[in-house]
Design brief:
The protein has 95 residues and is of the alpha+beta class. It contains 4 helices and 3 strands, in the order ααβααββ. The relative contact order is 0.24.
């Protein structure tokens, strides 16, 4: 199985937290060339939760692991943080 086929299979079988994070990233963010050190995975997971509640009218907890998984599944570049828990991503501002 190719990498792309494996990624697509994982996307179709992932849990609701990951699907919500993927939906948020597709609707609200875009990949950029360089790592964005202003937005950590910790910050971004809370943004996904707020967005989800505004869009669907109820809260969904988004774990940092689900957010990181979604970002990696979409092919964003990342760098683990050496200072705070989590990671940084090559993610652009809200479209």
């Amino acid at each position: 199985m190719s990498f792309e086929a494996g990624r697509n299979e994982l996307k179709s079988s992932c849990g609701p937290e990951i699907r919500a994070a993927i939906e948020y990233l597709r609707e609200m963010k875009h990949p950029i060339k360089t790592i964005n050190y202003k937005q950590t995975s910790w910050w971004l997971k809370h943004e996904v939760g707020k967005w989800y509640e505004e869009k669907y009218g109820h809260h969904m907890y988004i774990s940092q692991g689900s957010l990181v998984t979604a970002v990696l599944m979409l092919g964003y570049k990342f760098k683990p943080s050496e200072v705070v828990p989590g990671a940084y991503f090559a993610v652009g501002n809200i479209r």
